[in-house]
Amino acid sequence: MNLYTRTGDSGKTSIIGGRVDKDHLRVEAYGTIDEANSFIGQAMTLLTDPIFQDIYQELEKIQHELFDCGGDLAVVKEKYPYKAKEEMVTFLEERIDHYVKEAPPLEKFILPGGSNAAAVIHIARTVTRRAERCTVSLQKEMDINGEVLKYLNRLSDYLFAVARVINFRLGVKDVEYERSALVFKTNPKDKQ
Predict the structure, then answer these.
(1) Any stretches that span the bilayer, and where are they (predicted)?
(2) Looking at the chain, which runs of residues are DSSP E strands?
(3) CATH number at residue 61
(4) What does pTM read for this prediction?
(5) Does residue 115 fall inside a structural domain?
(6) Is residue 36 part of a domain?
(7) What is the pLDDT of residue 15?
């Protein structure tokens, strides 16, 4: 199998059901999803300690789901069934709720960073936000699987929660943004 085909040398690429310019909104959206996926993969190389087994397994699941999302955005003909489903979003919401309870209460904005793994997760989070913005732009131009947009929105929240838990499990404190007002209200029931 050749990794190069020369078919993209003129600035066009194949998507499911056609060809588009390499700077097309579709390509930008699923390419940015791929970038986020790569940072998640990098973070996973830093999460080999058994205390992160749950997070590692979830991130691997998420990597597959990001491929599903990218594939859905690459579909231009309706005959191909979408892969991103509501259950994927629900799973992320359940895990976010779990991790919010595990990490210390949050009252102020925090700086991205802490441990190496958390810092890479924060990079994946911000790239996911960019993928979400690209997907919003794409949605303005053509019909897409709306579950992809929901998934990206929830995934960035999940990654934020996971970055905080990684730091917490390692005993690394989040650094609060020093000029932040109190922006998060702590619900006393959250720690129950």
Answers:
(1) none
(2) 12-15, 18-21
(3) 1.20.1200.10
(4) 0.89
(5) yes
(6) yes
(7) 60
Number of domains forming the structure of the chain = 1
List of residues 6+ apart from 55 with CB closer than 8 A: 47, 162, 165, 166
Q: Which residue has the higher pLDDT, 130 or 78?
A: 130
CA end-to-end span of the chain, whole Å? 55
Both structure tokens of 69: 């999302």
Q: Is residue 122 part of a domain?
A: yes
Predicted confidence at residue 26, as pLDDT, reads 85
CB 184 within 8 A of CB 106: yes
Indicate left, alpha or beta for 17 from its phi (over 0: left) and psi (-120 to 50: alpha).
Answer: left
Q: Sign of dihedral through CA atoms 148, 150, 152, 155?
A: negative
Q: Could you tell me if residue 5 is inside a domain? A: no
pLDDT, greater one: 86 or 4: 86
Do 56 and 93 meet the contact criterion of CB atoms below 8 Å apart? no
CA 7 to chain centre: 30
Domain residue limits at 21: 12-75+84-191
